From TrEMBL:
Family classification: Belongs to the Gfo/Idh/MocA family.
Domain Gfo/Idh/MocA-like oxidoreductase N-terminal: 1-116
Annotated ranges, domain GFO/IDH/MocA-like oxidoreductase: 125-242
Species in which this protein is naturally found: Actinomadura litoris
Record key words, sorted: Oxidoreductase
Molecular function terms, GO-annotated: nucleotide binding; oxidoreductase activity
Protein name per Swiss-Prot or TrEMBL: Dehydrogenase
């Protein structure tokens, strides 16, 4: 199999290394030709002069890890060329772009997989299995959080889509994935503390949302750009018979104030380290999908549903009211 990779930044470079061990040939390209050359030389893989040139490189599939603005055009172009495509979230920068891209993909017969890596994290998968088995009884509460050790560069914030769309969207997808339930209503709030760029961009540096699921379960999602203790992603599922927690291990950045759990190792520094195994697993699933011609393990429709939740949360945060998903659905 010959797989093209568009974009070799932080995530893309890691994807290139993973793909090298999964398929016979990898071809990388980037808007920065020097960066593509450096990655290709380091890994011993092929290189195209540009992302555009990838489409003439005899590919069997395409992986998209470019900046967000290029996601939708590359997905549509790949589908039109009959190439199965893996795209990092989000499918597009906004809701309208996501819907338009799905319309272009829907009737193509070409498989598209979106990169929500938590669906391939062993802890999240085990929590999902615990819910589906009935071992937890009926679920009443889910708590999910994503805490970054430090904000991204200031220049990224105005183009990020905001905390709920850029960061918490992973939690929204994880809640849906683990519980198997749909979100019906949200109530969200945010705080513009820290760097001035958050307020200047109309964004928030810390946010929380209460999600009501279609069976009455409540999910609480929290996120912050300022968690100096370290990168922290956890999810708790609490039921009438039992409960489980994801992400509580020797590297969870928690400092107990008394007797209790004490991490033994250094905290995770970021998402690439915390989810290294999940990133590799989702690409293995993509390669298996291409080889077998099977359905996508994370189709773009799933990304749209998580985006609806993020959109509702941002409206709720700005307008200080509860918002139903039907209000934003199109």
């Amino acid at each position: 199999m010959r797989v093209g990779l568009a974009g070799v930044g932080r995530i893309g470079a890691g994807h290139a290394e993973t793909l090298r061990g999964l398929v016979e040939e990898v071809v990388v390209a980037d808007a920065d030709a020097g960066r593509a050359r450096e990655v290709a030389d380091k890994l011993g893989v092929d290189r195209s002069d540009s992302v555009d040139a990838l489409f003439g490189a005899g590919l069997d599939a395409l992986v998209v890890a470019t900046p967000t603005a290029a996601h939708a055009p590359l997905v549509v172009r790949a589908v039109e060329a009959g190439l199965p495509v893996f795209v990092e979230k989000p499918v597009a920068a906004d809701l309208d772009g996501t819907i338009q891209t799905l319309a272009a993909v829907r009737d193509s017969g070409v498989s598209v997989q979106v990169g929500f890596q938590r669906r391939f994290d062993p802890g999240h998968v085990a929590a999902r299995d615990a819910v589906r088995s009935g071992r937890l009884g009926w679920v009443h509460t889910v708590r999910s959080l994503t805490l970054d050790p430090a904000p991204p560069p200031d220049a990224y914030i105005p183009t990020s889509g905001g905390l709920f769309r850029d960061c918490s969207v992973h939690d929204f997808d994880a809640v849906r994935f683990v519980t198997g339930r749909a979100v019906t209503e949200v109530t969200a709030a945010g705080a513009q503390r820290g760097a001035p760029v958050f307020a200047e961009s109309g964004d928030v540096s810390t946010g929380s949302a209460v999600l009501t699921l279609d069976d009455g379960t409540l999910a609480v999602v929290s996120a912050s750009r300022y968690n100096a203790a370290g990168y922290d992603v956890r999810l708790e599922v609490l039921g009438s018979e039992d409960g489980v927690v994801v992400g509580l291990d020797d590297r969870t950045p928690l400092a107990p104030s008394g007797v209790g759990f004490r991490p033994a190792g250094p905290p995770h520094t970021g998402f690439l380290e915390r989810f290294a195994d999940a990133y590799a697993a989702e690409l293995r699933a993509f390669v298996d999908m291409v080889n077998a011609g099977t359905e996508s393990p994370c189709p773009p429709e799933e990304s749209l549903e998580a985006f609806y939740v993020a959109e509702a949360c941002d409206i709720s945060r700005r307008e200080r009211r509860s918002v139903t998903i039907e209000e934003v659905r199109r």
